[in-house]
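Students often ask why we bother encoding 3D structure as a string. The short answer is that it lets us treat folding as translation between two languages. Here is a chain of 313 residues written in the first language.
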Amino acid sequence: MPYQVPEPKIFACTDSRELAEKIADFYGTELGNVHISRYSDGEFQPSFEESVRGARIFIIGSTHPSSENLMEMLLMLDAAKRASARHITAVIPYFGWARQDRKDKPRVPIAAKLIAKMLEAAGATRIITMDLHADQIQGFFEKPVDHLFASTMFLPYLKSLNLDNLTIASPDMGGSKRAYAYSKALESDVVICYKQRAKANVISHMELIGDVQGKNVVLVDDMVDTAGTLTKAADLMMERGALSVRAITTHGLLSGNAYEKIEKSQLSELIVTDSIPIKTENDKVKVLSCAELFADVMHRVHHNTSIASKFLM
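And here it is in the second language, the structure alphabet:
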């Protein structure tokens, strides 16, 4: 009688539960039972309410601030390790703290590497994530990292719009590689914004490299935080004669007065994924779910089949 691979168990961190339920539904199973006990001072303790001994488990949770999201993931990984789970995969749709991936001035931390080491120390034997802020973060791990691209969702959506004179734009020099990959897939032109920052989240100056006259422009980025860069870029491009400007960003942090900026800007729409819960509805913000992508990759990982197609733009 052939050996039957037992099905994995899928668990969710609190803030990512809605996405995890969608992933489990696409996978064809239900979420495992986790109970969170809380103390009056804010300390909390997760507990698996079912056996995970010898099992492959997936723990789904983005690690965006507040730091409770990261701490909950770490505690769940540790609990799974101590409960003798065989394979423990941290499914992190949005890998938070990733902007601190290098020392850009003296006496600062490399937070992305610190968190990579914390995840491994807590018990993660594999990481599945999407659109890291910097590709080199994969090298901070000693365990396997499956780095997925949201382009598998964005490209079909962009093609469905049937935009004439399409031009892909990067809101900064660092995103030029991503923009060129999209332009190659869509056979379009590319323009790049050059920006200078006064400090984090504050742009002092922006210039446009390329021609957008009479073009429908799509800005491409990995995340949108305060929306200052995207809205400033959109307004600049419309001043330079663009027909329309929309943006696709994988992770919608949308902090501070981001929604107000988007509403007042000349962006026609902002397309994000649900890697982070979108808590405010807005007519300009469209959400594409990444649940089917993660469910497919988790199934392939469990059954040891190739996921190479999910790495390609």
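Translate back mentally: The chain has eight helices and 14 strands. Keep this in mind for the problem set.
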